[in-house]
From TrEMBL:
Pfam families: DUF4512 (PF14975). May activate the NF-kappa-B signaling pathway. This is UPF0729 protein C18orf32 homolog. Interacts with DERL1 and AMFR. It comes from the Eukaryota. Belongs to the UPF0729 family. Residues 42-61 are annotated as: Disordered. InterPro entries: UPF0729_C18orf32-like. Residues 42-58 have a biased composition (Basic and acidic residues). The gene is LOC103107451.
Length: 77
């Protein structure tokens, strides 16, 4: 069995998001903007900080530099 809060809470959140938030959010947004300023992440002057070297990355984003080890499980002796 599923507990009652596991059913009721998602339904109430969906009702709020779908029907109540469009009317309530404009009323509370001035208070929210005062509590949480828009500039939450400080900007840095370093232009190359977020840029990585993508030419040596494979599809998953992992670098392929260095030695690659092949597992012996797939090899037949």
């Amino acid at each position: 069995m599923v507990c009652i809060p596991c059913i009721v809470i998602p339904v109430l959140l969906w009702v709020y998001k779908k029907f109540l938030e469009p009317y309530i959010y404009p009323l509370i947004s001035p208070f929210v903007s005062r509590m949480w300023p828009k500039k939450a992440i400080p900007e840095s002057n370093d232009k190359n900080k977020g840029k990585g070297d993508c030419k040596d990355a494979d599809i998953n984003g992992l670098t392929t530099r260095g030695t690659a080890e092949i597992s012996d499980k797939k090899k037949k002796h």
